[in-house]
Amino acid sequence: MSRRNSSTSDLFSNPILVGSMILAIGLIGIVLSYRANKGLPFVPAYEIKVQVPDAAELIVGGSEVRIGGARVGLVTDVQAMPGRNGKPAYAELTLALEKAQEPIAADSFVKVRPRSILGAKYLDLEPGRSARGVPAGGTLPLTQGRPIVELDEAFNVFDDQTSRGLQSTIIALGDAFAGRGQDMNDGIVATRRLLPPLQRVLTTVVAPQTELGRFVRGTASAFGALAPVSPTLVRLLDSGAVTLRALDASAPALADTIKELPRTEIEATAGLVKLRPVLADAASIARAIRPGTAVLPLATVRLRDALRAGTPVLKRTPAFADRLGTTMATLGTLSRDPNAPASVKQLITTVTTLKTTLDTLLPAQVQCNLLPVGFRNAFSAVSVGDSEGPWFSQMQIVGSEQDTQHKAPSANLHVTPVPNANANECEAGNEPYAPGQAIGNPTGLQRNSTDTTAQPSGVPALAARAGLVGSAR
Question: Cα separation of 438 and 3, whole Å?
């Protein structure tokens, strides 16, 4: 034992050997400290690959991988990948993660984020919830890589126009707050009183039964739906600015209008109360005339035809009115005649007596053209013939048993002593042929049409010269 202790003391008493050992231990510490940021040797790691839109100057072996801000690994390799099939180029990163993180969920997201304003970056890994993991050596696809916004790109938003707008806003805010220190102090005091009720409101808002999460998701969905029409919304806001400027210019008139609104509302309410029975009656009338609307198209067509047919008659109205004026003047003179009442009474008696005859004759004339056809036939019988004379003087019934008086009518006799002539039928000339004897009106209704007649040539001119009608055209 004493011999071993003496050899050990002899070993450490050698200054060259001790110095060499200290130097070796220092070199090993320096190497380990230098390699610490790149991972300690002989420590197992979980390696995977991830694809990102932009590597954003990540340093191989120097950029960290973090989850929730805690370091869990290093970026050990960065490879630029060319674009294919119209897709842009991207970067593929090789990560050396701690074995405790194996496996990373397949729906995890990665994003390159700035570590400081000096330009250092790190890879932020956001674990997913999928039950399927990425195996060692596997790849997290590009769809799970989120794009980043560099600080210089963010600062590029503040162009000259935006900077001038911010300067104007800051100047306006300075003018707004100038001299209002006491008001700001009062506002702070009021805010202190507001905080307890606000805390109660926020407690209610974040309560599970309030379902704030669903509201936020619904709002996000609404804004997502508005994203495709964002240019239209921008134009709407621009136009709204013009409208608001116009409203600002008319502020005094708007103030007067708002001041008069309560009084107007009171008057309108009173008027509507009185108008309610009228509206109820109008609704009843509308419901009552609804069945009549079905015949409006037909009535409109008939009214159009009536106006079209009445236009030529209305063109003659001025001349008729002149003659009617003369007639009325004559009737005025007649009314002043002392013998007129007796004559009018006799005329009334005559018309009353003829009423039955006229009631029978009017439909026969209107529908069957009875009188003109009868006069035409009678005139033709005595005026139409040949060189021997008119047909009427030569008529002879032959081949009939009724040439002479006989005690019984002929078996083939057809005669209608009084043909029906009214609005329903025109029997004369329209009787159907029936074999055998047919005396009297045939059964059923016959056609209610007959020949149309026209006035002989020269008659309108003669009537015009006699003053019975207007001038012949």
Answer: 175
Domain parsing of the chain, residue ranges: 1-36, 43-155, 187-241, 344-374
Q: Give, as one character, the DSSP assignment of residue 337.
A: S
Q: Name residues whose C-beta falls within 8 Å of residue 425's C-beta, 6 or more positions apart in sequence.
A: 445, 446, 447, 448
pLDDT at res. 10:
60
Distance (Å, whole) CA 94 – CA 78: 6
Alpha helices in 369-407 (DSSP H): 370-383, 391-394
Q: Which of 405, 467, 414, 422 is nearest to 440 (CA)?
A: 414
pLDDT given for residue 345 in this prediction? 79
Residue position matching structure tokens 């009115």: 321
For the chain, which residues score pLDDT lower than 50?
1, 40, 398-399
Q: What is the pLDDT of residue 13?
A: 64
Alpha-helical runs (H) found in 13-125: 15-36
Report yes or no: 58 and 123 within 8 Å, Cβ to Cβ. Answer: yes
Exposed (0-12), middle (13-18) or buried (19+): which is 120, by Cβ within 10 Å? Answer: middle
Dist CA 380 CA 372 (whole Å):
12
- pLDDT (0 to 100) of residue 157: 65
pLDDT tens, position by position, 207-235? 888 888 888 888 888 888 888 888 888 88
Element (H, E) at 269: helix 251-289
Rg (CA), the chain: 59
pLDDT digit string (tens) for 371-400? 787 777 777 766 666 666 666 655 555 445
Which contiguous run of DSSP H or E holds residue 306? helix 296-315
In sequence order, what are the beta bridge partners of 104? Answer: 134
Dihedral pair phi/psi, residue 418, rounded to 5°? -130, 90
Q: pTM for this one?
A: 0.30
pLDDT for position 8: 54
CA atoms within 13 A on the CB side of 465: 4
Q: What share of the chain is helix, strand, coil (3-state, %, to 5)?
A: 55, 15, 30
Strands (E), 205-321: none
